[in-house]
Amino acid sequence: MAIPPRTTTPGVYRQYGQQHPVQRVGPNVTDDYERWYTEATPNNRMVLSIRSGINSEIAWALDRLYRLCANDQFILKTIPGLTDALFEWPEWYATEGYLMAEQYRLFAMPDAEHRKRRHALESIFILRNSATNEPNAYELANHSRTLPLLFNALTNLDPDTDMNAEFVLNAIELLQAISLGVILPDPASNKKDPLPTLLQITGHSSNRSLIISSLTLLAQLLSNIQNTRRLDSNSPALAASVRYLPLFVDRALVEASLNYLYAHLSHPPMVKAFLHHPLMPSTLRVLVSFLLSEQVEETVNLDISAVSRAIPATTVVIPVHDLTKEELETLVSMPEPQRCYEWMKIMFIATPDGELTQVDFWTLYKDAFTPFADRHPVLVASDVIKNVNVVFPQAQAMVLPGPPQRFVVRGVDRRKNTEAAPRFKCLWERSQCSVSPFEAPGELYDHLLQHLESSENPEPPCLWATCPLPSTSKQRLRPHILTHLSSSQPPAKHPSQDDTITVTADGESYPFTDPTKRQPPPLRQTNISYTRPVADPPSAALTALLIIRILFRSSFVATSETAPRVDGEHFGFPGVVEDDEGDDVVEDIGGELEGERRGRRAFVGVRRMMEDVRMKDEALMSWMVEMVYAAYDGLFRS
């Protein structure tokens, strides 16, 4: 695993997540100033300065090397002797120097030892940063002095002391870079073993940087099949990983914990033991919570509305056409039946769905021409009805069965005015009043009262348009007039009533001819809102998913993969598994069945949380679906 280079000046160690600088004096040079001193020759100035034993020359060389060590062009093996020269001071400190540092823990070290300790810190810092480059990591991994140095450092040095914290941190991170082929020694041997120190750091240290580096290194070392024998179900690193896992805000610490958990639980005996761990259910819940916190979703709105049309609920009623004064003067002098024909053409139109009663026809004709009957005779009712077929051949007079019977003329309807009449226009004198429209209903009512008071007849009829009210007293006529006035305000609507009416898109009109036969319109707006993942989960979330998957397979697969039994009473049908009864009881060796039951109960407890996990990758999402279904199935078996 590649580790990022650190640019912190050697001599700056970390404790409790902070940096504590150590004063140093050195020349300030620009980058690449010493370019010609890195030439691949045995007499390289850098190597000669490090081996010179002159403190100023050593400081000069190390100062420039730590500026170059993170550069991809810096290759250790191209400078002969440089790698061996950089090992000298770290080896001294890991085997002897640390003892003197412990003696002077509360006091300043002698100048000579202090300089050597500083050279050791700078040298291992340079080795650590150069190992981020693959050729250098390969060079150090195969060097005979690398592992002895690192194992001595992690065995001899106390990582809890401030004097050793930075050296141990660099040693751990250097071991990370070359951990691919590192085999841990057998604990029964007398060889140096870094594992106890790493476990001590993860379990008891308060230095965040050391904890993260130790967990990362342990995950890499224990991923090697040859090191799995060193796994322990009661490992302090396991307890630390479970303890630090809920700290989602500390990304680096959570990722290190997840990597170790995955390496630990990838070994079957360890995951079976973990199913008995008291914190296993809460750990599973935290892992699912981490998946939910890492998923990035977007809200999608899908319009599935059917085609529809909305029209205003408040419509302007267009009045029927009444004879104007000019039209009436023209028609009165015509001879019958020509006058009847022309009157019908003005007052009616042919409409297939139209329908008027025969009484309405006769009443309209009679009201229009009876006042002039002394000079121009009028037709009788039967002749008027017969003339309808002359003017409108498609119209038909008929009798509709009852009770009561209705005499109608079908195929014609009243003609409508092309323009809507003003709301407060006076229609007295059968719509012949020439006064301009009013602004308010009160003004119109006062005007109508003037018409009423000016009449000399004590019981006049209602002369509003075609109102059929017969003669009545003026006292009763005054409130009747109010029925012809429009309100100044539209009627109040229920709060849930909309301002528009939805109709089907096939040409349905409003107002409806027969509201009881109105087709149910579709909803004007039907939206489906749902969330979907924008991208695949990050690497840390994928590691959490793999850990969940391992726990799932250990909890459920043993039951789902039980082989069908074949004997005298069973035919071994695939998928048919019957529980044993009576004395034939499966022995729970090592508590494995109880562990599986605990695992199934834990998944049942988080099944609703897992239902909220969304992943863009279909294969990963199928894992979640499978685990959710299995959890619901386990609800009845656990």
TrEMBL record:
Region Disordered: start-end pairs: 484-532
GO biological process: chromatin organization; regulation of DNA-templated transcription
Domain RFX-type winged-helix: 340-416
Coiled coil: none
Record carries keyword Zinc-finger: no
Annotated TM spans: none
Keywords: Chromatin regulator, Nucleus, Transcription, Transcription regulation
GO cellular component annotations of the record: RSC-type complex
GO MF annotation terms: DNA binding
Name of the protein in its database record: RFX-type winged-helix domain-containing protein
